[in-house]
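Design job #97: recover the sequence.
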């Protein structure tokens, strides 16, 4: 008998939870309803060993009962599929040595004596169970807070859990509910919210950078694609949520990087889904949303590179563009895209295409070797006469170098295992980053001049810290150094 598995679609709302609950009742005939006050304490070691292992341990008080729960499965984006184990306990002290439970087996003995309270949650849950599209679904709306010392975070979540039937019904219900109360894909469990508060207490910045992607030795190409798409979606949604609350050039930058990584992933993994029509539509939507972010980011790059008079004009233009970005993010089109991506990855028709099964189930390392080699050859071929290229062709080299960089980041864990492998990867990425930096400086000048002209602003632009010809020479040297650097994916 397998471990108990929870299949849950998590959504977030800023307001309108009551409207969503009423809509759920109208869309399906509820046969079970309940309201509960749930208070929980989450536990970990001072070094957060459980979090790093992809585990969360809590004791939740539900009425008079205390239930200890261990969840596994790591980080997710929207669709949470996690093994979990429950154990009734007395009070708020974890029981970790019960021989009849998996707790002792899954926790390192060295952790157990150091495990203590980390943060708490206090949530009011309104739950309904009903039929929808041939499935039985539990709809739970949670409102409350997560507390960790001086820091706290608001919980406003709608969770759709599949009790029986096809998981596609979860997505259909989510879209139906969004028409009554705007919903966004949730990417944080309550445990992760608590750990983010601990990070803030330790001085972490607001903008969220992309998380390392860890692919297991047994991962196939499709599993790698799913892990990468999940990581990129999390990267985007965490920064999008911050943009909806406040402005910030680094927030815009990180959200845009996340979408670029997503778009690159679709390019790199195209052999897995071929000419799938849904993939083509999703790529178009990603291009649109990246363009909305890019319109603001382009101004952010220019502002520190011009005189005070031009800066004032650019800031006014940026304010206008940021308002446009916020309006775009509030569209149902923008809210639907992350949900559509998760559904396509989990349930898309491409997964069952007979002619694609071999490449989908190829070992991730084998697939990565082919992708990295192809991208490296493209950079080498297009960049041979870097100094003699015009701006447009040099920009193409820059784009190819960026795709190679994303591939190197995505697949790094496929080629790890020892210090020597890590050093080879680091050396290659360092050489590639140097080329990207110099090509980026040149591109900023070319694109910046074009943007200023389009806005009717007169200002002089030059590469930061050096004349254009000198930067071009450094770019050529960086290209030669990259070509001579051993490729980390080759033994």
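Job complete. Output follows.
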């Amino acid at each position: 008998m397998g471990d108990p598995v929870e299949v849950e679609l998590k959504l977030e709302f800023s307001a309108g939870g009551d409207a969503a609950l009423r809509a759920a009742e109208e869309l399906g005939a509820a046969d079970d309803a309940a309201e509960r006050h749930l208070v929980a304490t989450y536990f970990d070691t001072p070094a957060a060993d459980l979090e790093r292992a992809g585990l969360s341990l809590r004791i939740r008080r539900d009425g008079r009962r205390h239930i200890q729960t261990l969840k596994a499965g790591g980080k997710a984006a929207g669709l949470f599929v996690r093994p979990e184990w429950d154990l009734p306990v007395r009070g708020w002290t974890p029981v970790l040595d019960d021989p009849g439970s998996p707790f002792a087996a899954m926790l390192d003995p060295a952790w157990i004596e150091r495990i203590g309270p980390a943060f708490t949650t206090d949530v009011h849950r309104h739950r309904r169970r009903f039929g929808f599209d041939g499935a039985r679904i539990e709809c739970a709306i949670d409102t409350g807070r997560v507390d960790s010392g001086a820091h706290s975070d608001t919980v406003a979540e709608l969770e759709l859990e599949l009790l029986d039937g096809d998981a596609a019904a979860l997505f259909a219900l989510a879209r139906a509910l969004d028409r009554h109360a705007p919903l966004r894909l949730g990417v944080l469990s309550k445990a992760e919210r608590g750990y983010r508060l601990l990070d803030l207490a330790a001085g972490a910045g607001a903008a969220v950078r992309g998380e390392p992607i860890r692919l297991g030795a047994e991962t196939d190409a499709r599993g790698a694609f799913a892990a990468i798409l999940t990581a990129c979606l999390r990267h985007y949604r965490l920064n999008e949520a911050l943009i909806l609350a406040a402005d910030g050039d680094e927030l815009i930058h990180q959200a845009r990087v996340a979408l670029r990584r997503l778009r690159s992933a679709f390019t790199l993994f195209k052999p897995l889904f071929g000419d799938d029509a849904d993939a083509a539509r999703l790529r178009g939507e990603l291009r649109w949303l990246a363009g909305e972010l890019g319109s603001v980011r382009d101004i952010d790059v220019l502002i520190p590179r011009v005189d005070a008079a031009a800066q004032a004009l650019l800031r006014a233009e940026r304010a206008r563009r940021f308002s446009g970005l916020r309006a775009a993010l509030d569209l149902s089109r923008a809210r639907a895209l992350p949900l559509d991506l998760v559904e396509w990855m989990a349930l898309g028709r491409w997964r069952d295409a007979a002619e694609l099964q071999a490449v989908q189930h190829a070992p991730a390392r084998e697939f990565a070797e082919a992708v990295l080699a192809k991208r490296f050859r493209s950079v080498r071929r297009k960049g041979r006469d870097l100094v003699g290229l015009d701006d447009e062709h040099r920009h193409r080299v820059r784009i190819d170098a960026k795709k190679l960089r994303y591939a190197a980041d995505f697949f790094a864990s496929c080629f790890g295992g020892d210090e020597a492998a890590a050093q080879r990867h680091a050396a290659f990425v360092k050489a590639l980053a140097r080329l990207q930096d110099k090509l980026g400086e040149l591109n900023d000048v070319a694109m910046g001049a074009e943007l200023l002209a389009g806005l009717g602003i007169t200002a002089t632009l030059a590469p930061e810290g050096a004349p254009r010809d000198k930067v071009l020479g450094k770019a050529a040297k960086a290209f030669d150094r990259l070509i001579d650097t051993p490729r980390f994916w080759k033994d």
